[in-house]
Structure formats: C-alpha cells, structure tokens
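Attaching the record inline, Q. Sequence:
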Amino acid sequence: MTDDTHRAIDAVWRIESARLIAGLARIVRDVGLAEELAQDALVAALERWPESGVPRNPGAWLMGTARHRAIDRLRRNKLLERKHGELGRELGAKQTLAVADFEAAIDAANEDGIGDDLLRLLFVACHPVLSSEARIALTLRLLGGLATGEIARAFLVPESTIAQRIVRAKRTLAEKRVPFEVPRGDELRARLSSVLEVVYLIFNEGYSATAGDDWMRPALCEDALRLGRILAELAPHESEVHGLVALMEIQASRARARVRPSGEPILLLDQNRALWDQLLIHRGLASLARAREGGSPGPYVLQAEIAACHAMARTASETDWARIAALYTELAQLIPSSIVELNRAVAIGMAFGPQAGLDLVDALASDPSLKTYHLLWSVRGDLLMKLGRMDEARSEFERAASLTRNLRERELLLDRVRACASSSAS
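Structure, as predicted:
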C-alpha cells in the first residue's frame, strides 16, 4: 500500500467513522457491535482500495460493506442456531423475516438524515452510567475516530488501560441496556451537561496538559472543537452548546502565543496578541452571539464571556478585569466551586490590587479540596510577589512546582522561584 493511499484511507476513516458507527448502532442497538462492523468495513477498505482506488463516495462504500457484514452475521447466527436444533419451523420463519426487516432497516438508515444518529451516539458515549474517564475514551474512539494508541498517548496512560476502559464502557452500556436515543425534557438538560463536560475535559487536557513533557496537546483541542461544532449543528437551539463552542474557539485562538519555539509556556499577560488567531476569535464571538439569544446565561456562556473580555483587549493593560470579576461572581452563583472562587480572586487582584486578591486566596487556602491543587499556591505566590513579599512568594512557587505533574509548568514555576530568590538577594 502506498503512503498516499494509506493517508487517504486514514482521512476517510476520521471523517466517516462516527457517521458509520452511528448509523449502524441505531439498527443493531449495540455500540460495541456497531463499532465491530465498522472496523470490518475498514479492513475491507484496506484490502481493496489500494488496488481499486478510493471510491467516489467512500462513506457510502463503507456503509454498504458494513451492511452486508451485518446481514451475513445475522444469517450465520441463524444457521448456528439451526445447527444446534434450537429453532423450530415457526421460529425459523420469524428469523427469515427478521433478516428481511434488518435489510430494510439499514436501507432506511441510509436514507434518513445522519444528524440524529450522531447526536444519539454522542449521548450514548457520554452516558452518566460510565465514569468520566470511560466517557472521554469512548467519545474519542467512536466520535473522534482515534485509535486506542492515540488516546493512550494523548493522556499519557498505557494503551492497555485505554483498551480496558473502552471494553468495559461498551459492556456497561449493553448490560444497562442504555437506549440509543436522544433524551427529552428534563433528562435532556441533565444529560446534555454530561456531554458538554466530556467535550470540555478533552479540550482542557489539550489546552493545559495535566502531565508529561508538553504544555499543550493541540490535537486534543482540535478533536474537542470538532465535536463541539458537530454538537452545535445537531442541537442548534441549545445556548450552552454554543457557549462551549465559543469558549473553546476563543481559547484555541491563543495557541500559537502560548508556547515558545522551545516548548516553554507563555502566560496570558505575557503573550504576543498579534499571534492570536483572529479567525477563531471571530468564530468564537459569533457563537457567543448565538448563545446570548438563549436567555439567561449558563456556565459555559459565562466562561465564554470571560474569554471574550480577554480576546477584545488589544493589550493586557486594556483588559476589563472588573467585568471579568463580576462574571466570575455570577458564575460562582450558578456553580459554587473553589476553582471558580480562585479565578475570581485572580480577577479581583488584577482589578482592585494584589492585597484584595490575596485576602480571597487566603480564605481558600484552608479548603481541603485545594490542598494539592498547584494553581492555588501559584496564584498565591504571584500575589505575594506583586506585594514585594519575595521570600513567601518563593516558598509558594516551590510548593506549586512540587505538585504539578507537567514538566513544562514545573520549569516555569521554578523560574519564578529563582526570580524571587534573585529579588530577595538584591
């Protein structure tokens, strides 16, 4: 197989796999079986396309192949049951009708709009019966088109761990008989928050990697953005969906300015804003405008508003920190959280002086959930540094460096330790 053909097949799979699995899952009502049938179709493509070439409509080719594999499997199961003498004449007739009905159902799936199937698949992959880690892995596998090894590398865990998570997730969905459907009413709102959470967790891991040698993993950001955009098309009237897309678009716009060529991180206030991607900012602001049409803002809309404040400031000094602080106050009322309060303290410190911010941070320092959260101590060190209390600041940066699992972030914090030591000595 030539490299060009392999790249073409890989690209087609990334584009078509989610639609293929979604269409099959609606028919077979089993995500694991649907993925297996889709993989069979991919294997067939790998065998045939190098000789025949990539078909004009590769998605239809894959669906047609998977359709035949599904029907063959049903017929094989039927023959096996007959061989074991478990079917009588009447049951055999019903099975024959079932094959015909199955064929008709797949034909209907090909004719129906695929959007509803994708939305169903997204809600199934992000179902609350699964752990957060399982939801992320399954979503990236089924809707992101990522191989198990790619997911494992992105999250710096063994491939076997990801494989087990995916297998257990599919088994749990089957055992719990999770319906392949989009929930309605109150359940829709509750389940939508789970979907949005998974997409944003994927984005955040790409935007600020929790561990490893890299400050960012851009591919994960791109996967999350793609999922968010798909969701926005499938649920156009959900303001929180547009809010999340806006938030990710605006944050992703800073990617080139966040890392030096050597891989060292650059903090927001030190970034060259000329490197911010104006197209992404424009798209983010457009999504935010759509989100605002939905009435009272939800958590993702408020976070997008905060991101927009940064995006619209031409320089760091022009940032409207008072508005950002007010937005964090509003966010804290919706989702009480120590992390939100910490971010509010940063904004308060920028708007009204470092002592005002430090007072809020000190009130959070006794929170058990933040004891091992490195950013608490990093923020406290920054505020102490601004107040000229260098020895105390150095101690906090050292503590933060000992808690982070990201090598690049640790190096940044240790640089700040050295800067505090240098200032104390002079």
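The beta strands are 211-212, 405-406. The CA atoms of residues 394 and 421 lie 7 Å apart.

More tomorrow.
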